[in-house]
Design a protein that fits this description.
This protein is α/β, with parallel strands linked by helices and 331 residues long. It folds into 2 domains: 2-96 and 305-330, no CATH class; 109-296, Rossmann fold (3-Layer(aba) Sandwich). It contains 13 helices and 8 strands. The strands form 2 sheets. The chain has a 6-stranded mixed beta sheet with strand order 5-4-3-6-7-8, with helices on both faces. The radius of gyration is 29 Å and the shape is elongated. The chain crosses the membrane at residues 22-42, 78-95, 304-323. It comes from Thalassotalea psychrophila. Pfam families: VWA_2 (PF13519).
Length: 331
């Protein structure tokens, strides 16, 4: 459980790190004169530099008072910290966006559900397919009335529900899906390309293909990499089976090789692989991946939070030290 929480946190941290930037980066140039000013302050009190031409270092060391240099906090040191933080505040660090009242979500989520025979495995009770349906319904409730489409596939792929904002209708179709409805029960992910391409052609916003499956073939990643290299969209792979890293996997669960194949498939689709969990953590991770892709494609509509204001509280604490009696005399 601890490893899973760490992986979620690590994924979220990397996502935010990739979005980190400064809203006003030119303010970072102010660090140059501040650094020069700080060096002048330090050099001004450097007795060795001032008197080295007149007497030896040994004599200077015996005559100089160096108590201030041994103190952990001095006005000069705190000034340097204050200057660095103030520069960051003015530069405006940011790593997340905010939704405006004028923003309209035009992105589409295309759910591609695997209904092949392998999805009837019972390592997830009562079956992988039923648990996949439950997870999808939970995701639909979390997304509300966002645009969604449903594609089912096994040996062939078919659009079960075109793009709609009626999640109850999608839930109705999910409820009746079974492996017996497919003409061919083997797994062929490449058959998804044609229906997905038709659905993506109906949207101009960065969208997400959510591939809900338990396994993939070795050569599938190459096909999807070629397809998504020409698209501004992503594919998130949701692995519906027991994860061997969870410590709960049975012999019917995913192997390490199968997980690697699913991760490669997600990388080929410019997305991420999300492992199944018995809690709602995987649903939340899928939802975050969908939102991140939508926001990154709508930078002009989604203003960035200026997170530099949070650093002002640190500046207030540092500034308060200047009111101490005798503090300015230590310069």
């Amino acid at each position: 459980m601890g490893d899973f929480i760490f992986s979620i946190w690590d994924g979220l941290a990397l996502s935010q790190l990739s979005n980190f930037h400064f809203l006003r980066p030119l303010w970072l140039l102010s660090a140059i004169p501040l650094f020069i000013f700080y060096r002048l302050l330090v050099t001004k009190d450097d007795l060795f530099t001032q008197w080295r031409g007149y007497m030896s270092d040994k004599v200077i060391a015996n005559l100089a008072q160096t108590e201030s240099n041994k103190r952990l906090f001095t006005p000069k040191k705190l000034f340097a910290i204050f200057a660095v933080i103030a520069t960051l505040v003015m530069a405006g660090p940011s790593w997340k966006q905010q939704q405006t009242p004028f923003f309209v979500d035009e992105s589409v989520l295309i759910i591609a559900l695997d209904v092949s025979e392998s999805m009837q495995s019972s390592d997830l009770q009562p079956s992988r397919l039923l648990r996949a349906k439950q997870k999808i319904n939970e995701l639909l409730d979390m997304r509300g009335d966002a645009k969604t489409a449903l594609v089912v596939y096994a040996g062939s792929a078919h659009i079960a529900m075109p793009i709609t904002q009626d999640r109850k209708m999608i839930a109705h179709f999910l409820d009746v899906l079974d492996t017996n409805i497919m003409p061919a029960r083997e797994k062929l992910e490449q058959s998804l390309i044609a229906p997905i391409e038709r659905l993506l052609a109906q949207t101009k916003s960065p969208s997400t293909v959510l591939l809900v499956t338990d396994s993939t073939a070795n050569n599938t990643a190459t096909t999807f990499k070629e397809f998504f290299s020409k698209q501004a969209h992503q594919m998130v792979v949701w692995a519906i089976a027991e994860n061997p890293d969870s410590g709960l996997a049975s012999s019917a669960g995913l192997s390490g090789v199968q997980l690697d194949q699913l991760e490669s498939l997600a990388d080929a689709g410019n997305g991420t692989m999300v492992a199944f969990t018995h809690s709602s953590d995987d649903v939340k991770q899928v939802s975050r991946s969908i939102k991140n892709n939508m926001f990154l494609g709508d930078d002009n509509s989604q203003p960035w939070y200026d997170s530099g204001y949070l650093l002002l509280f640190i500046l207030l604490v540092l500034q308060a030290t200047w009111f101490r009696r005798g503090w300015t005399m230590q310069w």
